[in-house]
Amino acid sequence: MLTDKRILLIIGGGIAAFKSLDLIRRLRERGAWVTPVLTRAGEEFVTPLSVSSLAGEKVYRDLFDLTDEAEMGHIQLSRSADLIVVAPATADLMAKMANGMANDLASTLLLATDTPVLIAPAMNVRMWEHPATRRNVSRLRGDGISVVGPNEGDMACGEFGPGRMSEPLEIVAAIETALAEGPLTGRRVLVTSGPTHEPIDPVRYIANRSSGAQGTAIARALAVMGADVVFVTGPADAERPEGVHVVEVQTAAEMLQAVQAVLPVDAAVFAAAVADWRVASASDSKIKKDKGQIPSMEFAENPDILATVSQMTEGRPRLVVGFAAETDDVIANATAKRLRKGCDWIVANDVSPETGIMGGSENAVTLITEDGAESWPRMGKDEVAHQLAVRIAAALG
Ligand code: CTP
C-alpha cells in the first residue's frame, strides 16, 4: 500500500502519456496523493483537466506562474514529495536531467530536488538505442535515479523494439519498491567492487578476473533494505546496480581517492579485487616492439584501501567489512588478514580455479568476525549478498 505517500508525477510529452492517467488512478486507489506536473509537450497528449480530475489536485504547468509561486514555490514543490516519478520520461527530458538543465518547470523541479526520483522512459526504439540516450541513462543511474522499463513491443510509430513505457502496474510496483522502508533506511553504506586496471601504457594494462558480480549484488541488497548506497567500482563487466550512487574508477589510486571523498559512512564493504601493484612508471606513449627486446617492468605497491579505512583514527565507519580471496588455507589466511588490516569482518572465499567462484554466479564464503569463523553453504551470489546485508543491518542496529 502507498497510504498517504506523496508522489510528484511529471508527465512528459509522448504518446505514452495516456497511460499516466491510468497510473494516477492506480496510485490513488492505493492511498497515495498525486501532485501532477504536465510539460508543454505533455499537454499535446493529455489535457490538464483530465489529469487534475483524476489526481484530485491542481496540475502544475508553468515555471513562472505567479499564482502557483504564491501558493507553493517550485523549490518547495520539488521537495514536498516522498518520490518524484517521471512518466513518460522522454529522450529530451532525460537529456535535460542528465545534463542538469533547468529551462521549464519539470526540469527545474528535477534539478532543485533532493527527493528520490524514478523515471519510466518511453520513446522510439532508435532513440532509446542511440548512444546519446545510452549515455544519459547510465549517467542518470550513476546519479542514483531509478529506472523502470522500457518494455519491448510494437510501438505507436509502427516500429518494434524496446522503448514502450512500462505498464501502470509495473510502475506502481517500482514505486512501492522505491518507497519501501527497510532496516537500513537512513544508513549510508559504501561498497567497492570490480577489478582495477593499472596502466602499462595508454593501450595496455594489468587487471584481474573479477567480474564485480558479488560487489554489485551486495550494493543491490543493501539498497533494497533501504540503505543509501555509494558504489565505487572499477571497470567491471557486471551491470551497474539500480538506485545507488555509482562512482566509476580505473586504478587503485583513483579508488582510494573516491572512497575518501565518500566518507563518512555508517558501514563500508570492500568487495573490490584491487590490484596489489601498479607499474612504477607507466609510459605516456605506446611502448613499441623493438626487434626482440623484451621490456622489463618495475612495480610499485598500491595503497591498501581496506587497511587505510580500517585504521582511521577519526571518522572510521562503525563497521568495516573486507573480503579475502584465497586459494590455500582459506580460514587461517583470512583470520590473519582481518587482524593485519584492522577490519571488523572478513568475508573469505576460496577462489581456486576448480571452485568456479571467480566470474561464476555462486559463492561459498566464510564470515570471520572477532567471534570466530562461520562457514556458509554454497549459494548464489545474490543470496550471499542478502545474508550479508541482513547481518550488516543487525550490526548497525
Ligand atoms: N584491498 C584493498 N586495497 C588493496 C588490496 C586489497 O582495499 N590495495 C581489499 C580488498 O577489497 C579486500 C581485501 O583488501 O576486501 C583483501 O584483498 P586480498 O587481495 O585478498 O588481500 P591482499 O591484501 O591483497 O593480500 P594477499 O594478496 O597477500 O592475499
UniProtKB/TrEMBL annotation:
GO terms for cellular component: phosphopantothenoylcysteine decarboxylase complex. Its cofactor is FMN; Mg(2+). Residues 1-188 are annotated as: Phosphopantothenoylcysteine decarboxylase. The active site is at 157 (proton donor). The keyword Ligase applies. The keyword Ligase applies. Pfam families: DFP, Flavoprotein. Its EC number is 4.1.1.36, 6.3.2.5. Signal peptide: none annotated. One of its GO terms (biological process) is coenzyme A biosynthetic process. CTP binds at residues 276, 286, 303-306, 323, 337, 341. Residues 184-394 form the DNA/pantothenate metabolism flavoprotein C-terminal domain. SUPFAM superfamilies: CoaB-like (SSF102645), Homo-oligomeric flavin-containing Cys decarboxylases, HFCD (SSF52507). Residues 189-397 are annotated as: Phosphopantothenate--cysteine ligase. NCBIfam families: coaBC_dfp. In the N-terminal section; belongs to the HFCD (homo-oligomeric flavin containing Cys decarboxylase) superfamily. This is Coenzyme A biosynthesis bifunctional protein CoaBC. It comes from Shimia aestuarii. The gene is coaBC.
